[in-house]
Amino acid sequence: MPHTKAQVQAAFKRARAHFKGKIPKGTKLFPRFGAGSHTTARAAPRKTSPSRRRRVSGAVRSVAHRPGLISKATSAIALLIGASDVIFRFQENPQNPAAALENLAVDYSAGLTKGNFDYNAAIRAYGPLVGAYGFKKAMSFLTKRFRM
Predict the structure, then answer these.
(1) pLDDT for res 28
(2) Domain boundaries, the chain
(3) 61 forms bridges with which residues in the sheet?
(4) What is the separation, in whole angstroms, between the first and last Cα of the chain?
């Protein structure tokens, strides 16, 4: 004899209590009584974001998303590219860090600490930062495009 809607609801209520609120995947609450709110076709495309959502016992809960290995490696490489000017300034004269700091101040102020604008100093200071930003954005696009 087929079950009524009330009997199916009661059975799933007992099942949720047994599974502590988590019904196993692949089970449908009302397959006989029509689709209801659970339709297979979506009107809008699915949104992808770093915080993923999961439906557990009727409630939508957000799930923490940790960055993967490729994302961590991309961030580390971008950090090295961006900090390359600082690293090389301290490698030029390791015995005199005060001179390295003075050279960095001249570079990052684009020479204005000496009274005139130096285009090459600005390129030396901000070129690696722009390059690191571009590298990070390009790798982010590629990893999303090819799902690495």
Answers:
(1) 62
(2) 5-38+51-63, 69-146
(3) 54
(4) 51
Tell me how crowded residue 81 is: count the other CB atoms within 10 A of its CB: 19
In sequence order, the 6+-apart residues with CB closer than 8 A to the CB of 133 are 78, 82
pLDDT at 89: 83
Q: Which pLDDT value is given to residue 134?
A: 93
Is the separation of the CB atoms in 121 and 107 below 8 Å?
A: yes
Query: If DSSP states are collapsed to H, E and C, what string results for 46-82?
Result: CCCCCCEEEEECCEEEEECCCCCHHHHHHHHHHHHHH
Cβ atoms 104, 85 nearer than 8 A: yes
CB atoms within 10 A of CB 5: 11
pTM, entire model:
0.49
How many C-beta atoms surround the C-beta of residue 132 within 10 A? 19
Length of the chain: 148
Q: How far apart are CA 132 and CA 134, in angstroms?
A: 5
Characterize 84-93 residue by residue with b for buried, 16 or more Cβ atoms within 10 angstroms of its Cβ, and e for exposed.
ebbeebbeee
Give the mean model confidence (pLDDT) for residues 103-116. Answer: 82
Report helix, strand or coil for 4: coil
